[in-house]
Amino acid sequence: KAYEEQVLCQLINSTLQDVALKEQLGYEAVVGIVKRYVATQVEWGRFDRLEVVGLDEVALKKGRSDYVVIVTTRLREGQVKVLAVLPNREKETVKAFLARIPTRLQRTIQTVCTDMWKAYINAVKEVLGQAVVVVDRYHVAQKYRDCADTLRKQELRRLKAELSEAEYDTIKGAMWPFRKNQADLNPSEADLLDRLFQYSPSLKLAYDFREELTAHFEQELTKAQAIKAINQWRQDVERSQLTCFDPFLTTLDTYLDEITNYFLHRDSSGFVEGLNNKLKVLKRRCYGLLNLDHLFQRLFLDLEGYALFA
Question: What is the DSSP secondary structure assignment for residue 159, as one 8-state letter?
């Protein structure tokens, strides 16, 4: 048993092939060890409560339709546990999983963090009526930041056509500084943006609006204060006649309640994003890892292997 647990620890952040080679074991022997020690589904008896649950998808292969859903929970101590890997992001699939959570644990779920996929939100509301749905602030930020970035691309195309080559050279390389938060700019990046904004006041306006909205999410606001601040921001954007934020304003029409639920407990699915990054590495490490049971086992091992087997 001690040797098999050692093999499992070696598998953490590694591959079956590498461990088999290192230990001079057959590939199937290593697979057999994983099967004996690691379940392919969550064992609910290990949990007293869930509180914060995260839903997020990741594409197993290139191609937009090939998503699996990673369901996780973050415990009070900060540990992240994987609850499921679901085969698709259909509402009925998510609902069926949520309904299988034992009633005693369903009652403990206070918050579900998700992105702006209606199927997730509706599934949670139908099965876990008491849970607050939070549209993750990082997905929200991606939306409004993309809007500002779209204008940056348009303006740089325009300026490339209108400016002399020498003038355009003075604003080359603006993409990364533009994408940074103002507080993170070094002096040369700030100077570069100043030169760009002299040629494009509308881009300066979009940058300032983007920074202002980010600042609201950093502030210790109540939900009511956040709604007021975001609605004021929206009015200012509409008065400015900038159109680059129009797609995000539509998002606010649909999801303002779930977006501002963030301010109730400042829950976000940053912990799910961290797991997604781990999953992307796992996909590269274990090329062709498309079996969902194996995926669950490998995520479980990466997250909990040392605590259980070291």
Answer: H
